[in-house]
Design goal:
It is built from eight helices and no strands. It is mainly alpha-helical. α3 packs antiparallel against α8.
């Protein structure tokens, strides 16, 4: 994917998620059971956590440093997800929504700092493991968001009967 395609995907998927939840009352956004005991708010906080780590990765890569984001710490994904969930589950809905908007804007800003060549060359950075930067971006932003949007869609459909 080139930069224009990444930016479009970042904007389009975010808009899809926001369109899905825009008319839901707060009690629906905070009701458990969407994914295990997670609510839509919890899912959004989860997406925020991973995308914040992506922002760190992109910032450090732009500075020429090896990223120190969660991706390089050898952690168990399920364990970190649960730890982050425990840390963030008491955040107010408004805070999570504000973060959801702000984090995506920061991701877009960081992506804009890279050239198409930097985004697509799997050997541009020594730490990439032969994975182009655009794939790192996709997995922790728009593709991740799409995965969870589908869970929310299914949950909402099941609730409507």
């Amino acid at each position: 994917m080139n930069k224009a395609e990444i930016l479009k995907a970042l904007e389009d998927e975010h808009e899809r998620f926001l369109d899905l939840i825009e008319d839901l009352p707060p009690e629906d956004l905070t009701a458990p059971g969407v994914n295990g005991d997670w609510s839509i708010k919890d899912i959004m906080a989860h997406i925020n956590s991973w995308e914040a780590e992506l922002i760190k990765l992109l910032f450090q890569a732009r500075q020429g440093a090896k990223p120190t984001s969660i991706h390089f710490r050898g952690v168990n994904v399920d364990e970190i997800n649960e730890a982050w969930h425990q840390e963030r589950k008491s955040r107010h809905l408004e805070q999570v929504l504000d973060d959801f908007h702000a984090i995506r804007l920061q991701t877009i800003r960081r992506v804009n700092a890279f050239s198409d060549q930097e985004l697509t060359d799997p050997k541009r950075f020594s730490w990439q493991k032969n994975i182009p930067l655009w794939r790192w971006i996709a997995e922790d932003s728009f593709a991740h968001e799409a995965e969870h949007r589908q869970q929310v869609e299914a949950w909402l459909k099941n609730r409507q009967g």
